[in-house]
Amino acid sequence: MAVTSAAHVTAAPPERESLSDWLDRQAGRLFILPAVILILGFSIFPLIASAYLALSRFKLAPGGYTLTFIGWFNFKKMLTGSQQFHLLGTFGAITLLGWVIMLATVALVVWGVVRYVRSGRVTVVGSIGRLITIATALALSVLFAVNLGEGGQLGTIATTMFYVAGGVAVQFALGLGLALLCAKPIRGRSFFRVLFFVPLMVTPVGIAYTFRMLADTAVGPFAPLWHWLGYAQTSWSADAWTARFVVLIGDSWQWIPFIFIVLLAAIESQPRDEVEAAQLDGASGWQIFRDITWPSIAPVAATVVLIRAIEAFKIIDLPNVLTNGGPGIATESLTLHAFIEWRALNLGGSAAVAYILLFLSTIACVSFFNFVVKPMREARA
Amino acid sequence: MKIRSWLAGLAMAGVAAGAMPAVAAEFDGVTVNILTQTGPAISGPMQARAPEFEKLSGAKINVITVPFSDIYQKLLTDWSTGTNSIDAAVFAPQWMVDYAGSGFLEDLTPRMEGDQALEQDDIAPFFREFSQKYAGKTYMMTFDGDFHMIFYRTDILEELGKQPPKTWEDYLDIAAAAHGKDMNGDGQPDFGSCIGKKRNAQGYWFLTSVAGGYIQAKGTSEGAFFNTEDMTPLIDNAGFRKALEVYKKTSEYGPPDELNLDVADTRVMFVAGRCALSMDWGDIGSMSVDPSMSKVTGKVGATILPGSKEVIDRATGEFVACDADTCPHAIDGPNHAPFAAFGGWGGGINANADPKVKDAAYAFFSYLSQPAQSNQDVTKGETGFNPYRMSQLEDVATWEKMGMGKENAESYLGAIKTSLNSPNMILDLRIPQNQRYQQVVLDTAVARYLAGELDVDATVEAVVEGWNEINEELGVDEQLEAYKATIGAE
Q1: A90: nearest CA in chain B?
Q2: Nearest chain B CA: its distance from A35 CA (Å)
Q3: Domain with B193 in it: what CATH number?
Q4: Which of A34, A145, A339, B72 is a Cys-bridge partner for A98, taking CB atoms 3.0 to 4.6 Å apart?
Q5: How far apart are the C-alpha atoms of A54 and A67, rounded to whole Å?
Q6: How far apart are CA B486 and CA B426, in angstroms?
Q7: How far is CA A323 from CA A158, B259, B275, in A?
Q8: Do A60 and B465 touch (CB under 8 A)?
Q9: Which residue of A has its CA nearest to B81?
Q10: Domain of B6, in residue numbers
Q11: Are residues A118 and A201 in the same domain?
Q12: How many Å apart are CA A155 and CA A4, to the nearest integer?
């Protein structure tokens, strides 16, 4: 009988545990301890220290420096004070484009909420998470609407979001296209695979300097073409949007290979028998892609977009080397913004920008994971 | 003191002789880590001189290079955290206030006073008495004479029948007349004016050079950045507004990508014959005689920064005409205020370095600055070093030998001398955290103005608000005291 057995066990005198038994029992914790110490030392502690820095004012003093606690001053300055134009941009009167952006966002939010409620899986944690996502999405749409309005200018948040959304979209589309091409049995396939992969092997700063040389319309390799087209007296670097697009093109040049190589692997690992069966049944290339290839690679595609987005939030090399953030502040990303403040010894302001970037990228990436990557994986499973 | 005897010996031997084995052993086994900017300029001549210095002294000089924009922070991080992996550095004298004020820099006064080989009296008084010093003590040794001036194409001005610009109106007039002409024979239209206006580069210094003649008229101690009574920024006035307009107007005669060009780009363009005028430090002078890069050898003149025939009244902020009272230092009418932008590269030593390493670092700096070395280095364009010794400014023959031509050499050295001797020289901002005032607030506002994001009034407002905010953060009284001390105001 179970109760009797339990009583018997309880009544037995405790045996002295040997060291080896103790080590066996603690092995899991002991093995994970170095990693925990490393993470605490190199990730968590700096995060806490920089949080304090974001709430402080750094000042040099004889023999070293002083840190004075100033509360939310650094954040206030950027969100509502003299540096608002830098972080949030200049607000203009909302135009038709702005209304379209806001209405599209509201429509997307309403659709998401309705789907969530109808799913029958409403939880407290899920609702809080969705509220944070909705608030961020609406705030960003309003920010874009006023920044793109008449007399408005993009700040570093909107510029960074442009690099993330625009850059990742372009890179994904081209990376997928190249991967589909290279998955075909065409001549020189291996050569093209290596060729497309090369930019990823170069350091970001190297890419930035190479691209700067390529984009030089005065003495670069494309200068004769530029002049022939009649643009000798025009420079991409003098206009805010062309400068942003040149940064985006440079970033894409560097990162398309990453998406290409991952998606190529995913495409090549899709079930061949399904594709061959579809071909035998006379399915078109588009039908095969839509019904077989895409469902097969969707989880990988969503993951690669997520990884790329996390990286894109931190873009600094290209705008720093190509334009130094100019013209004006047109191409300045959040990371470059933080770097410029740090370089001028405004460590508190720099840490505050870095924290805003951390919140923004975390919310965006966690939301993307929960609402895109996870459902795709579940659908595939 | 060993170092003094070593230096005296070095001088007696004529430095380059190098046959001093007993003395050379002085620094055997000593390694000095010196941080400066990525080459070829500045770090190049240091790296070139290091092996010959090692042969002479035994000390190994390890030149560590980082991009210019990272030097300030790298040094602060290394020295303020006590890491002290950097024994010495060659950097901007503007930053001395942050380093010396915090006790990171060695006081070089006694060493330099006892250093006969250095020939300190030969160093131009501006660098010797101001650029190298903080609070009356010498913390840096100058290797480079830096202030802005105007370079022009003598052949183009002659062709146009124009004289070198005396005012900014003259500058714009020449730029407009020359713009679009083919100035280097390649069949392509060239530019009237080339000024590096890239953001996060040197643009804010060039704007200050334009504003100087409108704002400061009564001598260096009057100041051109802040009112010395209450630390009010000297921005919200007719002079600064006019400077913004002139600065933007020069872009009409510049390359289409001028907003993305820094000074390294415009120099190359000028010596390639693509510009009629340029505002720069002295580098164009030495680059113009370098046959490997110059198409304008013998065609380059230089002059003091243009001035203005009206200056602001400090009480009202409005313009008043120049006369003996309002512009006591005017030259032939206009008020000129040459701007010692940056102030010239100089070497400073980490106060917490090992004493032997400090001695070796000082010996290397002295070696670099001694006439035997520096007289050669300042005539080479790639070194980034410009004349800063009086003897270098008199030495027309050397420049003639380099191919500059007597008239052009006299013009170049004359422009330097006129600027250096001006009692109305504007000293660069040297108050604590000057980087934030200039490289963040001023630079961002100017970049936004040039890009069309802000108009003149909004630019003025942005700079005033930003500077006042930093003053409040760091303490108005402390900043005012530091500002007055640096410019010698009462």
Answers
A1: B453
A2: 26
A3: 3.40.190.10
A4: A145
A5: 10
A6: 11
A7: 17, 9, 22
A8: no
A9: A64
A10: 2-145+342-394
A11: no
A12: 73
Q: Are B72 and A238 inside 8 Å of each other by CB? A: no
Residue B28 forms contact with A (CB below 8 Å): no
- Across the interface, whether the CB atoms of B102 and A235 are under 8 A apart is answered no
Tell me which chain A residue has its CA closest to the CA of residue B257: A235
Report yes or no on B366 lying in a domain: yes
Q: Is the dihedral of CA B317, B322, B325, B330 positive or negative?
A: positive
Split into its structural domains, chain B has a count of 2
8 Å CB contact of B451 and A330: yes
Only one residue has tokens 């002083």, namely A66
Q: The tokens 């998955």 sit on which residue?
A: A183
Instruction: Please tell me whether residues A141 and A269 are part of one structural domain.
Output: no
The residue type of B13 is A
Rounded Cα gap, residues A41 and A47, in angstroms: 10
Residues B58, B177, single domain; the answer is: no
Q: Looking at the structure, tell me whether residues A187 and A132 fall in a common domain.
A: no
Q: What CATH number does residue A207 fall under?
A: 1.10.3720.10
Hey, are the CB atoms on A237 and B260 less than 8 Å from each other?
yes
Please check whether residue A44 lies inside any domain of the structure: no
Do B267 and B236 have their domain in common?
A: yes
Sole residue written with tokens 């039908």: A287
Closest-CA residue of A relative to B67 is A321
For residues A228 and A361, membership in a common domain is answered with yes
- On whether both B153 and B135 belong to a single domain, the answer is no
Structural domain boundaries enclosing A114: 91-151
- Using the beta-carbon criterion (under 8 Å), do B440 and A341 form an inter-chain contact? yes
Concatenating the DSSP letter of every residue in B261-310 gives: --HHHHHHHHHTT-EEEEEESTHHHHHTT-TTT-S-TT-EEEEPPPBBSE
pTM: 0.86
ipTM, two decimals, is: 0.82
Same domain for B70 and B101, yes or no, is yes
A114 within domain boundaries: yes
Chain A partners of B198 at a C-beta cutoff of 8 Å? 323-324, 326
Give the strand order in the sheet containing B31-37: B60-66, B31-37, B88-91, B346-349, B141-142
Nearest CB to A329; choose among B444, B452, B466 = B444
The answer to whether the CB atoms of A235 and B201 lie below 8 A apart is: no
Geometric angle at alpha carbon B315, from B311 and B319, rounded to 5°? 25
In this structure, the answer to whether residues A313 and A216 fall within a common structural domain is: yes
Number of domains present in the structure of chain A: 2
Residue A129 lies inside a defined structural domain of this protein:
yes
Nearest chain B CA: its distance from A62 CA (Å): 4
Residue B437 lies in a domain: no
CB contact under 8 A, A343 and B198: no
- Which residues lie below 8 Å from residue B385, measured CB to CB, with a gap of 6+? B42, B45, B143, B144, B345, B374, B377, B378
Interface of A with B (CB under 8 A): 57, 59-65, 77, 81-82, 85-86, 90, 153, 217-218, 232-238, 240, 322-330, 340-346
B383 within a domain of the structure (yes/no): yes
Q: Does the beta-carbon distance from B440 to A61 stay under 8 Å? A: no
**B257, B466, B473: residue with CB nearest A235:** B257
pLDDT per residue of chain B (490 residues) written in tens, 0 to 9? 444 444 444 444 444 333 333 444 689 999 999 999 987 889 999 999 999 999 999 999 999 999 887 888 899 889 988 899 999 999 999 889 889 888 899 999 999 999 999 999 999 988 888 889 888 899 999 999 888 999 999 999 999 999 999 999 999 999 999 999 999 998 889 999 999 999 988 999 999 999 999 999 999 999 999 999 999 999 999 999 999 999 999 999 999 999 999 998 999 999 999 999 999 998 899 899 888 889 999 999 999 999 999 999 999 999 999 999 999 999 889 999 999 998 899 999 999 999 999 999 999 999 999 999 999 999 888 888 999 999 998 888 888 888 888 888 899 999 999 998 899 999 999 998 898 999 899 999 999 999 999 999 999 999 999 999 999 999 999 999 999 988 888 7
Residue A246 lies in a domain: yes
Residues B370, B296, single domain; the answer is no
B432 touches chain A (CB under 8 A): yes
Q: Cβ A327–B450 below 8 Å, yes or no?
A: yes
